[in-house]
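Weekly structure sync, notes
Attendees: PL (lead), two postdocs, one rotation student
Agenda item 3: pending single-chain targets
PL asked that the sequence for the first pending target be pasted directly into the notes so everyone works from the same version. It is reproduced below exactly as submitted, 246 residues in total.
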Amino acid sequence: MFSIFRKKNSGSVDLSALGTDMHSHLLPGIDDGSPDGATSLELIKGLQQLGYQQFVTTPHIMWGVHQNDTDSIGNAHRQLQQSLQGERMGVPVRAAAEYFLDDHFDGLLRKDVPLLTIKDNWVLVEFSFVTTPMNVKETLFEMQIKGYKPILAHPERYNYLVSRKQWYDELKEAGCYFQLNLLSLTSYYGKIPQELAQYLIKKKYIDLLGTDLHHQRHLDALRSSSSLMDSVKSLLDSGRILNSSL
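Predicted structure, written out during the meeting:
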């Protein structure tokens, strides 16, 4: 199929066809991402140079670690918007969240607290990198009962699923979108995430692509990882990637 990428210099990283980065940690000072407004601006400028035109940034909500809520995220978003205006940068930046599936999240669902969405009813979620979550399927079902569409962040980074690949089938059957980290298409996170990324691509399970950008090291790795472009182009040419709809 004809590639929808614009041609740039051979070997360069051009993510312009994605349009929107829907997973990042660009809000200043509220999680393990950007520590301040100046850093946020530099990271956004760097991502624009890679071709991104707009952003849905997704700070962590993980109780006991990053205890964010609508107010803290809204305040940080306003601070970033002021910084962007001060630099006369008109790039659209919206704020959602990356929710850790834990007791706090279950409580939000029980209390009908409105969740911060990527688009419409789409909500980005993650779970433990260490062990299989106990009630994740029940939580995902409850999300859908409440009218939300769960997006599982970086499913390729849960290394313990390499021997439990049926989980991916079950999560897909449970109605999840899957969001792949671009750097998982390289060896940045290690061999297992790279292999799982290719497995999920072959299964045609990937719906969204994100940078999951936290800091300058991620930006530098993206800039220097032209090898990821073949996989990105193939995914986009498949017509399954939904970033352009955001």
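Discussion points:
- The beta strands are 20-21, 54-57, 60-61, 93-95, 98-100, 122-126, 149-153, 177-181, 208-210.
- The two ends are 23 Å apart (CA to CA).
Action: rotation student to compare against the earlier draft before next sync.
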